[in-house]
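User: Could you write out the 3D structure of this protein bound to flavin-adenine dinucleotide? I've included everything you need below.
Assistant: Certainly. Input first, then the structure.
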Amino acid sequence: MPGEKPYEVVISGSGPAGAGLALALTAREPALAGRILVLEASSHPREKICAGGITADGVRQLSAWGAPIEVPAVPIKGVRLRFGDRWSDIPAPESGAVVVRRDVFDASLVRAVRDRGVEVREETPLLDLRRDASGVEVAIPGGSVRARCVVGADGVAGGVRRALRFPQGRRHVRLIVAETFDQTEPAESEGLFAFDFSCVARGVQGYVWDFPCVIDGRRAMSRGIFDRAPDGVRRRDWKGEFARALAERGVPPDSVIWKGFPERAFDPRLPISMPRALLVGDAAGIDPLMGEGIAQSFVYAELAAETLLRAGRRNDYRFREYHRKLLRSPLGRELRLTARSADTLYSARHFPFWISLLFESASVRKVVGEALAEGGGLSQRLGRITMAALGRLITRGWQRA
Ligand SMILES: Cc1cc2nc3c(=O)[nH]c(=O)nc-3n(C[C@H](O)[C@H](O)[C@H](O)COP(=O)(O)OP(=O)(O)OC[C@H]3O[C@@H](n4cnc5c(N)ncnc54)[C@H](O)[C@@H]3O)c2cc1C
């Protein structure tokens, strides 16, 4: 609105990426709090369709920002992997990973952001955006606000991406989630991140998950299916596959409400910044292999905070180094590796080979279990995985000889 102070940054969206960015900025520079505006189209607690699994690195990042998780969270004690009639449990009792309900979790993040003195305007979507020589003009209901720059943390359908015509890209991951209060889950699987890859044999590039959670104080299960939906691969009956999985778990498919939502899979070729604007979290694109995005959004937030503070110090908001910095960071290496290898890893032809290595080698299982519970992904463990897999292949060769 005319006469309003210009903000240093307007953050569009207050999910993990947007709230995380406000926390990352104020943890580094508390005096900046009054110069950050967070816009949120909805109001908290708002529904977010998500399984709510947070790997240990995400949990640690929140503590490092001085905003530890204080909402109900189911601790994860291990990972279960399944393919057809083979399955394996990988204990990780101290992993620190948890499952949260996104409505209460995201609301708690926003409370922490407000406690730092940052202004959060709910029910206030970013409607449009114009960049000029001195900053950005952000259109909101009833007027506009000015800032030196803007960050799109507004999820898969992002207003910033749309307003500034960032290329949309093509790959959208599909997920359906159904939450059940069923008692059918065997007791021993409590506290496990369970990933069932059986559907890969039938052409779905993904998995069915079973995560324990608590809904309104009651024990429940979040179950869903992740399907990469890659370009050029014929559309598979992923909904039928999920119905089959529910029935197999003793949950009549029509007894639960299914909710679907897309994700944006990261594409290293697409820009994630332009002068005066950055994208983070789902708006920029996340893990195309497993669809994990909460902890990754926190890593994006850290990188964006560094980039914004540096831009402010230099009064240079072109953000030319942001994309390159991301690609070279551990997160960028993971995103590149998973974007490159997902087709091969999930191919119905090759998947039985990969997964057999996992079932046969305790060392491969240990590293993959760590990656899934602790976070940080496969790229930083590639050497250990390769060595363990080679060891197993050599043993196989000896056993055959
Ligand atoms: C079914 C499903 C299950 C998943 N399970 C997991 C899981 O177990 N673990 C995990 O790590 N990840 C999971 N993910 C991924 C995870 O949910 C996302 O990666 C994560 O929410 C991304 O955070 P974000 O802040 O970028 O976006 P979001 O959480 O989508 O937040 C974006 C925010 O922006 C707001 N907004 C949108 N448009 C505007 C606008 N124009 N102006 C202002 N505000 C706007 C929205 O209201 C929203 O609050 C799952 C995703 C799905 C779909």
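The first helix runs from residue 16 to 28.
User: Perfect, thank you.
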